[in-house]
Write a structure and sequence with these properties.
Keywords: Pyridoxal phosphate. Belongs to the pyridoxal phosphate-binding protein YggS/PROSC family. One of its GO terms (molecular function) is pyridoxal phosphate binding. The chain has one domain: Alpha-Beta Barrel (TIM Barrel), CATH 3.20.20. Helices cover 40% and strands 16% of the residues. It binds pyridoxal-5'-phosphate. Pyridoxal-5'-phosphate binds next to strand 8 and helix 9.
Length: 237
């Protein structure tokens, strides 16, 4: 079995090839290493292989790993990518660097109130239900403008962009469709609202190449690095 470090090296090769195909600079795509269900020792291995950004789905599991890896805290970023309930916003505002899964204004308002003044602003992405799946969380595309305008005006937060978990699709061409839609939405919002959002958080192990072809700036990858998750979990958490 390949080691975590070998998988990471391979993954950077895959990112480079997709960037080359898209005529994009390699450094325009950031790898967010998704560590949910994997132990802190695996995260440390990814750190030792050069990774500095880690994504967790569950607040408590994330906080446990942040604590287990407290010695790395100053040189890594922790991103919350899973659903966030209002009763968990305080610990997130205090412990994380990014939240990708903001899907209503109330959550952003609480994060803004609770972000400690001593910390830099919390980086925020709005989650969009880009495939229109009834079971999925995320704002409907038509709702995003109103929420984006309000979130951009909140203190202690920095609205960085949009995040999506598109419906799985079998072919590269089919995978590109929702990613293209999210990229189009970001461009429209920046133009219409005068915003400068710079982050398209899209692409996972199975559809990362399609996401990069459509402009992803941050890909969120777990199983291609750590192997299959044994604890059952959906991409939503
Ligand atoms: C689990 C998860 C990922 C990573 O998925 P893989 O298929 O393991 O690469 C990315 N984004 C979110 C929101 C997730 O929950």
């Amino acid at each position: 079995m390949a080691t975590i470090s070998e998988n990471i090296q391979q993954l950077h090769g895959r990112i480079e090839r997709a960037c080359l195909q898209a005529s994009r600079p390699v450094h325009s795509v950031t790898l967010l290493v998704v560590t949910k269900t994997f132990p802190a020792t695996d995260v440390r291995e990814a750190f030792e292989a050069g990774e500095r950004r880690f994504g967790e789905n569950y607040v408590q599991e994330g906080v446990d790993k942040i604590e287990a890896l407290a010695d790395l805290r100053d040189c890594v970023e922790w991103h919350l990518i899973g659903p966030l309930q209002s009763n968990k916003t305080r610990v997130v505002a205090e412990r994380f660097d990014w939240v990708h899964s903001v899907d209503r204004l109330k959550i952003a308002q609480r994060l803004a109130e609770q972000r400690p003044a001593a910390l830099p602003p919390l980086d925020i992405c709005l989650q969009v239900n880009i495939s229109g799946e009834a079971s999925k969380s995320g704002l409907a595309p038509a709702e995003v403008a109103e929420v984006a305008r309000a979130v951009a005006a909140l203190p202690r937060l920095r609205l960085r962009g949009l995040m999506a978990i598109p419906e799985p699709a079998a072919t590269l061409e089919a995978q590109r469709v929702p990613h293209r839609a999210l990229a189009g939405l970001l461009a429209t919002l920046n133009r219409d609202l005068g915003l400068a959002m710079d982050t398209l958080s899209m692409g996972m192990s199975a559809d990362m190449d399609a996401a990069i072809l459509e402009g992803a700036t941050m890909v969120r990858v777990g199983s291609a690095i750590f192997g299959a998750r044994t604890r059952p979990t959906s991409p939503e958490g």
